[in-house]
From TrEMBL:
Pfam families: DUF4395. Residues 13-168 form the DUF4395 domain. Keywords: Membrane, Transmembrane, Transmembrane helix. This is DUF4395 domain-containing protein. The chain crosses the membrane at residues 20-40, 60-80, 117-137, 143-166. It comes from the Bacteria.
Length: 180
């Protein structure tokens, strides 16, 4: 007969935490997609795309760029220090105490990897916006939104699935065997 107190301590994270964070991130990204669709990234000018004739300062000060920059910095924070990232702290201090204890904990590496994927996608959109590529910021924000939405609503973490595929291939998460 096994008693819970005799078992080894559970390690991992509450899987509801990343879903909570994904919900907030999805909302920010949805707003960003709207700003991108109505802003400089997709605007037409008399001579073509407005972004191609805009200065780097104008591209930087575009509201869609600024919001995606904030979201990108939040992704970076989640990769570098997930314990102190704002949405995780909010979940642990405000939301989690009001919920029942999780029945299972999950490995924190796949969600952290997913944060890195979000960081890459959003940073790519920012760089391309600064280079004057039309639609790039809006498409990057939309792609990140889809991933965050699927995680928040359905619990399907695309970045986590990518991590697991790379883990099975021996690229991440496991030490490679020493060559004989």
């Amino acid at each position: 007969m096994s008693d819970r107190t005799d078992a080894a301590p559970l390690h991992g994270i509450d899987p509801r935490g990343p879903r909570f964070a994904a919900g907030i991130t999805a909302l920010l990204l949805l707003i960003d997609v709207f700003l991108g669709l109505t802003g400089l990234s997709t605007a037409q000018a008399a001579e073509g795309w407005a972004i191609t004739s805009a200065s780097v300062a104008e591209r930087f000060l575009d509201p869609a760029f600024l919001l995606l920059l904030v979201t990108t910095l939040l992704f970076l924070w989640g990769v570098l220090s997930p314990r102190t990232a704002p949405w995780g702290v909010l979940f642990r201090t405000v939301v989690a105490p009001r919920l029942t204890a999780p029945t299972e904990l999950e490995d924190p590496r796949p969600p952290r990897f997913a944060q890195g994927v979000g960081l890459f996608v959003s940073a790519l959109g920012l760089v391309l916006q600064l280079l004057g590529v039309p639609w790039a910021l809006t498409i990057a924000a939309a792609a990140a939104f889809v991933a965050a939405f699927l995680n928040a609503v359905f619990g399907l973490c695309l970045g986590c699935q990518l991590y697991l595929l790379l883990q099975r291939a021996g690229i991440v998460g496991r030490a490679r065997p020493a060559s004989a």
